Amino acid sequence: MGFETVLTIGALTLVGLGLAAIAVLKGWNGWLELKKMELAHGMPSYREDSAPTLTGGRIEMADLKERVRKLEQIASGIDL
């Protein structure tokens, strides 16, 4: 491969990375604007009617405790 080919590939790679970075930053800025508008209008980012009930919260907490227990067993090398 010649020097010109390597230089061309490198330049095209940098241009591609630059374009990808610009696209990601535009998406990030759009997401931030959405969150700013939600805060300005007092709109929560979640639905209020989807809040867990007291019983659902207890079940979820028990499930999380069980997962933590299993992960601790895995970390200590105990087979389930």
Strand and helix map with partners:
Elements: H1 3-40, H2 54-76
Describe this protein's structure:
- There is one protein chain.
- This protein is an all-alpha fold and about 80 residues long.
- It has helices spanning about 5-40, 55-75.
- The longest helix is centred in the first third of the chain and has 38 residues, at about 5-40.
- The termini are far apart.
Q: What share of residues are in beta strands?
A: under 5%
Give helix % range: over 70%
- How is the main sheet built? none
Overall pLDDT score: 84
- What's the end-to-end separation, in Å? 55 Å
Looking at the structure, what is the overall shape?
flat
Which H/E pattern describes the elements? HH
Number of strands: 0
Low confidence ranges: none
Total of DSSP H or I helical runs spanning 4+ residues? 2
Gyration radius over CA: 25 Å
Secondary-structure content class: mainly alpha
Name a few traits of the molecule.
flat
Brief synopsis:
The chain is mainly alpha-helical. It is 76% helix and 0% strand.
